[in-house]
Amino acid sequence: MAAVAGVSPKTVSRVINNEPNVRPELAERVLAAIGELGFRRNAMASSLRSGRETATIGLIIEDLANLFYSTIAAEVARVARAHDTHLITVSSEEDPELEQRQFAQLCQRRVDGLVIVPAGADHSYTRPEAEMGMRMVFLDRPPSGVLADSVLVDNEAGARAGIASLLADGHRRIGVVVDSPAIHTARERLAGVRTALAGAGVPYDDSLVRVGVSDPDGAARAVAAMLDANDPPTAFFTGNNRITVGAVRELYRRGSGAALMGFDDFELSALMPRPLTVIAYDVRELGRAAAVRLFERIGGDASWPSEITIPTRLVQRGVEPGAT
Amino acid sequence: MAAVAGVSPKTVSRVINNEPNVRPELAERVLAAIGELGFRRNAMASSLRSGRETATIGLIIEDLANLFYSTIAAEVARVARAHDTHLITVSSEEDPELEQRQFAQLCQRRVDGLVIVPAGADHSYTRPEAEMGMRMVFLDRPPSGVLADSVLVDNEAGARAGIASLLADGHRRIGVVVDSPAIHTARERLAGVRTALAGAGVPYDDSLVRVGVSDPDGAARAVAAMLDANDPPTAFFTGNNRITVGAVRELYRRGSGAALMGFDDFELSALMPRPLTVIAYDVRELGRAAAVRLFERIGGDASWPSEITIPTRLVQRGVEPGAT
């Protein structure tokens, strides 16, 4: 390992044990070497596993009672059924520790593979199982600390296109409401916002950005606070559909004419009581692509991990005001 | 068996084989006797099974990518987790044959029990497994041809209350749009409509009733046709949330002031672009009650099957017109 990375064994040990004072570029090199070796071993172990031990796969998601995740679960189950395989779905409730326990239990059941929408930011805990041949595909958020396939939305490009559209309509003061940047999707979407603003020469104004907003009520409060401030935004960018719904509610309640651009489409967006634009993508395709990739792995595919990206598009939603 | 039912063995055979020309009251007696004997045998077999063989239960539902079912799945999974049990969810896609195949596969896996939202109208196919000790709870629709616990919405009373509310507001011409009466919930809700109308002395007018409507587009067409007829309805009763959404769309599009009363609440109903009333009930409680009952059975409860009824209530939804 140390030889592959070109560093001392002591450095390898310090990186693995997450000790401080390791130069970032050394840590990168060590992790890359670990990843590569680990992945080679996994691929070999996986091909040694007999293909279909339990005819069961597992899906770890945040919350089944959320249409985004249940749509993914339905697609994964559909692909599984075509392979005569049952799907066990478990919920991590956005809790990284619960995710680890659920992962361990599903591995103990000897499922043939796992689709994971990770809650935590560090998935090195999966490495021992991966090295023993557990096939895994990460969905919506990329893996960290382990090499594996992933299927992701093109978050950065989608947010860029959304902001570019608002800028093209003449907006210069755009209120931005997103979830915590600790979450991959929120981080990427915020990055897209910054890139689009910078590209148009519009300064990034911290007073117009609220992060860590995770539900409709919080979103409504964030929008209200920005509208009540001096020189309020003429448009809003909302980072996911829960935030968008809260923004719709508050903008409608006030009769505000501010433009609204929200990431994620959602059921009944076409019947929202005011116009909005959504950054839409094919949620079913997310689930389908992940499940198809997993069954390729179960079928013996030992190629280098791939990252599949699902594109986005802008769609007009909501009803025109005053039609009644 | 014939002795218990007080009929000839030939009659028993004819009832079991579903032959014609058996008097209904004889058939009833035979089926009741079969049910009672079957159930006694099941309860004994169930108690002989060692409690926790696979630490897995199964859930058979129509479609996971429908928030009603995914909410139920999430609750069943939550109760299962509290019992250190995994949940396998399979979709019947409203196809009785697929339901039977899914049932057989889950029994082959030796799950500890099943929650079933039945697609078909006849569940006598489950009897052999039930008699070997498979615990089952039927959800949202009652079992037929087998004795088992069930958890149901109070459909008839809910529809009655909804129509009574429209009548109290002075409506006499009420358009009714429901799914096929072959479906238990649609049949019960339609029965509630008839009872409420009869109680108020308002004649049941076939020209104001559309049955077999199963999606929003069909509902929008049904509402449009009734509004375009002579002497159009001043109010609509819609039999489930998919039908309600189609009715909202069509009524909003026309700027119609007709009242709307829809069975089932739904996410974002509060943001629909016109007022409506929904007949709401606790969907989580449906799933929770079914799972709790199943684990009571797994824990050894051999009491006579129970029917748990979930109550409904009327809730105002939608936004007031012209607030923008």
TrEMBL record, chains A, B:
Alphabetic keyword roster: DNA-binding, Transcription, Transcription regulation
Domain HTH lacI-type: 1-50
Annotated Gene3D superfamilies: 3.40.50.2300, lambda repressor-like DNA-binding domains
GO MF annotations in UniProt: DNA binding
InterPro entries on file: HTH_LacI (IPR000843), Lambda_DNA-bd_dom_sf (IPR010982), Peripla_BP/Lac1_sug-bd_dom (IPR001761), Peripla_BP_I (IPR028082)
Domain of life: Bacteria
UniProt cross-references to Pfam families, sorted A to Z: LacI (PF00356), Peripla_BP_1 (PF00532)
Keyword RNA-binding: no
Protein name: LacI family DNA-binding transcriptional regulator
Species name: Actinomadura nitritigenes
